[in-house]
Specification:
The chain has one domain. The protein has five helices and no strands.
Length: 105
């Protein structure tokens, strides 16, 4: 994007692999949950997976918005990346709760 000075088409095209990665993550998650079942600890820990779904929505918004102004798309891409920098402790919390429940017996 830097060599093209954030041209609209280039910024929109940058979002395509980001969108594909978000979709691939969602497909992988569904495949793993299908193997382990909806009642597994992993399924309980993941819950509704807001971050995964939000990533897809953000990239779907960013790609067409790049044709309006590339800076809006760039801000959305940065927001999506920053969202994943915040550690997600759902699995750790669920495992800790389960361990605590087992230790009570």
């Amino acid at each position: 994007m830097g060599e093209n000075h954030f041209a609209r088409a280039t910024v929109a095209l940058y979002g395509v692999p980001l969108l594909m990665a978000a979709i691939a993550y969602s497909i992988l998650q569904h495949a793993i949950l299908a193997r382990h079942g909806n009642e597994s600890l992993l399924a309980i820990a993941l819950g509704h997976d807001v971050k995964g779904k939000a990533s897809i929505v953000l990239y779907l918004l960013a790609i067409p918005s790049a044709f309006i102004t590339s800076w809006i798309a760039g801000i959305i891409y940065i927001a999506g990346a920053l969202m994943w920098l915040i550690p997600d402790r759902r699995i750790e919390r669920t495992m800790q709760r389960t361990e605590n429940q087992l230790n009570r017996y």
